[in-house]
Amino acid sequence: MIVCARGRRRWRRSCVTIVAKENVADALTLGNALAGFLAMTYVADGRFTAAALLVFLAALLDGLDGYAARRFGTRNDRGRFADAFADAISFSLAPALFLYALLYDPARGSAWTDLSNALAVIASTLVAAFGVLRLMRFAEADFPRQTFRGLPTPASAIFVVSGALLFGPSPWNLIASYPMVVVTSALLSSALMVTELPYPKVGDSIRTFAAIGSAVTVILVLPAIYLRGGAACTLGPAGCPVIELPLFAAAVGLLVTYIIGGPVYVRIGSREKVVSVQ
């Protein structure tokens, strides 16, 4: 981004670079962190649909910042550490708070006396703790690898928040109210983040299609919400089930495929490389 101002001479201009190409990746990383923070504010307001959409947005920005770093370059090596900090906000703390606020019910009593509340605390704590541990490992040693070790935090976050809106407690259940499904999914994804299972990294071509798909989704979702494509289409507790159900169900379906098939895909690919070398 260039801003130009006229100098003393009539047609002379002095130009100052505000955002250089090398800083585009950092700007996207900052956007990722801010989207995660805003998701937490929406959780605090009880607007879980908006919070989930902001986690989706954070995941999109997280994918684009890596592409921008390779496309435009960076001025220093702070990118991977800034990326880890931003991901900790958007994909560890935000989904953990999301789970806690959705599943914990003070009316049932404290977590010391009520099993459901205890499981809500345990699941949300593990999502936050194991997510941070996963990011620490990624920033320290996993960054240059061709594959991920353990389930990536963006995949875990989207899987958790989408599943929570499909099977959470009433009224947050687009399919049915099965909170134990949400707790089990959160515990599973948390454990997978700190395993040694290999998961494939998404290529730039897939990121491009994901970016286009996300933009199309926003174009379809926001008019329905703000122009009221249905009487109940809001970002508040009522949500917009006509759009939410296919969106979050598709997200869960794709991520179940990635969670189960990702390690298999990596192992098959590594075997094919060995065979081709031989």
Characteristic terms for this protein:
single chain, 278 residues, mainly alpha, two-stranded antiparallel ribbon, 8 helices, 4 strands, 6% strand, globular, disordered C terminus
What does this molecule look like?
The chain is mainly α. The protein has one domain. 68% of the residues lie in helices and 6% in strands. The protein has eight helices and four strands; from the N terminus they run ββααααβααβαα. It has helices at 24-44, 48-72, 79-103, 115-142, 153-167, 179-193, 204-226, 241-277; strands spanning 2-6, 13-17, 147-149, 198-200. The strands form two sheets. A two-stranded antiparallel sheet has the order 1-2. Strands 3-4 form a two-stranded antiparallel sheet. Strand 1 (2-6) and strand 2 (13-17) form a beta hairpin. The longest helix has 37 residues, at 241-277. The termini are far apart. The relative contact order is 0.11. The model is unreliable at 8-18 and 274-278 (pLDDT under 50).
